[in-house]
Amino acid sequence: MIILSVESSCDETAVAVTKDGREVLADEIYSQVDLHAVYGGVVPELASRSHIEVITRLAESALRKSGIKKSDIDAVAVTYAPGLIGALLVGLNFAKSVASALGVPLIPVHHIRGHIAANYIAYPELKPPFIALVVSGGHSLILDVQDYTRMRILGTTRDDAAGECFDKAARVIGIGYPGGAAVDVLAKSGDDMKYYLPRAKVDDNPLDFSFSGLKTAVINIAHNASQKGEELDKASLAASFSAAVSDSLIPRVMEAAKMTERDTIVCAGGVAANSRIREDLTKACSLAGKTLYLAPPKLCGDNGAMIGCQGYYEYLAGNIAKADLNAYATMDADDISF
Fold first, then answer.
1. I need a surface site. Which of 31, 45, 188, 229 has the fewest CB within 10 A?
2. Is residue 34 part of a domain?
3. pLDDT band at 338 (very low <50, low <70, confident <90, very high)
4. Domain encompassing residue 26
5. How distant, in Å, are the alpha carbons of 58, 307, 311, 314 from that of 324?
6. CATH number for the domain including 173?
7. pTM attached to this predicted model
8. 288 vs 131, 256, 299, CA distance in Å?
9. CA-based angle 14:281:289, to the nearest 5?
């Protein structure tokens, strides 16, 4: 089954062509990082306009590189939730138009489910059930993936997402936007024990996260150093911050695997590219005798291939949308309302 897939939930425009949910024939991505860097974060209106400008030529490029004709497309998959509503609507309306013109089914795909599916591309042998840790700029959650389209949220963030905190920490440290990769590189030369940073606990659900206190602590350390005229050890603050995020994520996902008696753990999302998190999770799974699947860094960020992959399984489950499909800024990954 050949699927043309569209992803436009935030600041990457992506169009891909995939086959049978596992094979990527083409995956075109246009990043808006340079556009938003001057503002220190994503500006929704600018993101939407940029999607409009590039989405058609990305689709044409994807088809050309895949060698697939328009008449060979069996379905169109698109991210419809969650994300920036204006950005989502650009991709959704484009996908609707293509599906209508070609007379093929329109498949709605939840963004988080797409991130999980990135691992199916990298690891053809991977099949549910498993525990998934999804960490990105807007999301941090643990899911029990019972089947390709049936999953249950076990833990989520009560405030900020891990990726959002990386960006804000980078801004405070003074290393620019986007922050994730910059913090990761800087942390390698720092002492992760130099600065004490909190690891929050949530009493009513031990699998939930809270990162707002961690973000505030980083800001306070930087401001105190500035007020006292002291030099801030940026590398060590980056290392201490990375360790605190990892210490918040890893024990919870391991506990989730223990509670559900799952032997396989999957990690996905933009923050899954962080070297400290990858290293700590690898060690934890080795000690616990769990099988770990880590999405390759190139598939951790937003891309169209992951949407096409998940779209294949949504199609097999009968999740087909009508022309009145709407976009949603928020929606839980275990909810497929459309």
1. 229
2. yes
3. low
4. 2-116+302-316
5. 24, 20, 18, 18
6. 3.30.420.40
7. 0.93
8. 14, 12, 26
9. 120
